[in-house]
Amino acid sequence: MKRFCILSLYIFFVSLLYAQTVEVDGAYRWTGVNKSETGLDYVFVIPSSSQATIRFNSTSGSPVNWYRFDRTGINNKTPISNGNSLTYSSAEKDYGYVIEQGDASIYLWLSTYKEVSSLYADEEYANQCEDVRLAGTGLDIAYYTVNGKWKGVNRAVAYKTWKWDDTLKDLKMVEDTVQGLVSKSGETVSLYAPAPYEKTLFTVIDSIPYKGWNGAIKTFSTSDEYEPRAILMKAVVSQQLRDAKNEWNTAPEDGSFGGSAPVEMEFKAYVSGDNYYAWEFMQENPSEVDDPIVDAIYPDKILRYTFKDEGTTYVRLKATNSYCSRDTSFTITVGESRLEAPNIFSPGTSPGVNDEWKVAYKSIVQFKCWIFNRWGVEIFRFSDPAQGWDGKYKGKLVPPGVYYYIIEAKGADNQNYKLKGNINILRPRN
């Protein structure tokens, strides 16, 4: 372990001592290159009219060897210079270069900049629910990997769309800019951008022409606005929670909704454009059943619903148009009922401790309770199981002794309860 630490420190300090970087005069360094995928350390983009001069910066005095390779990869690399020169001033564009010094090698590619001269959205593209394929000329600023695979420099694309705003808690129209993915199929080069949710023009923005390129940032837009197919949908679902200490109301452990009935829910739908949407209620899990039976449909933006029946209900928000559909589902589980009544309490003895008679319950959707004294006189009644009796009659504490209750209730699982029993009020003699 000690040797490993010493070796790691040695490698770290040696890498600092012999730092190596590359610059190309007048070129733009594209930072999107993935070395693990391409084998390249650098990709530079340079105007067609500029002379390419590569400058190798190294703090080591070891000899430097230069090689050039074409689009077939480094298997056909050709030596172009050797010795101690750290500058190569005759670099050709659209070639790759290898700089070797000692045991280290740096791989780079020089690409010729192209200006977009035509741009349009491909209406025949089949995946318009997810992204848009842009076609035109001048899209392909190409480079090749060390293994000879074609790659394209991604280009910035601007357009209007909708996004979810966490601050506003609503959808918000924005003008977004993303790095569009340039790809090639056969001889066709395409630019892929995320599908917009608003009617918009697509604009390629060249951030490549910058200082030293003698010109402002260049843009090129589609001539026709794109009609969106994709659907942006956001569902906000919440459950009204109760804090009655005498209710067994344990929420499901899997992050779904539910617990003790009645379960009061609020469903809010946010959907872009004029797309149709509705809340669908079903007993089958839509993630497990391809075409579940829908029991009820509610085409409401805000839906408030109370679940009173024991069991699991799946609620799906589904949005559709002529091209695309989106959906998301939520699980609401109502537990079976339970009802128990105590037979002893001590009101007026220790405030806050056992000074109220309450039932313990779960998933009780109908409830009535009557309390009587030993002579059959009704002294209290209530219809909310979360409430209780404070041991008073006409505002005064009743004497200690035996009292009686009758309860009629119904559970979310349709179980009927008819309970009766005695209540013993204990209070020490003064």
Give me a quick take on this structure.
Residues 1-19 form the signal peptide. With 430 residues, this protein is mainly beta. It has helices at 2-17, 35-38; strands at 20-24, 28-30, 42-46, 52-58, 64-69, 78-83, 87-91, 95-101, 104-112, 118-121, 131-137, 142-144, 150-152, 155-165, 170-185, 188-194, 203-206, 218-221, 233-240, 257-259, 263-271, 276-282, 294-298, 302-307, 311-320, 325-334, 338-340, 344-345, 360-362, 364-372, 378-382, 392-393, 396-397, 401-411, 416-425.
What does this structure look like?
The chain is mainly beta and 430 residues long. The chain has four domains: 17-112, Immunoglobulin-like (Sandwich); 118-221, no CATH class; 233-334, Immunoglobulins (Immunoglobulin-like, Sandwich); 338-425, Immunoglobulin-like. Helices cover 5% and strands 50% of the residues. The protein has two helices and 35 strands. The chain has helices at residues 2-17, 35-38, and strands at residues 20-24, 28-30, 42-46, 52-58, 64-69, 78-83, 87-91, 95-101, 104-112, 118-121, 131-137, 142-144, 150-152, 155-165, 170-185, 188-194, 203-206, 218-221, 233-240, 257-259, 263-271, 276-282, 294-298, 302-307, 311-320, 325-334, 338-340, 344-345, 360-362, 364-372, 378-382, 392-393, 396-397, 401-411, 416-425. A seven-stranded antiparallel β-sheet has the order 10-11-16-15-14-17-18, with no helix packed on it. The longest helix has 16 residues, at 2-17. It is elongated, with a radius of gyration of 37 Å. It starts with a helix and ends in a 5-residue tail after the last strand.
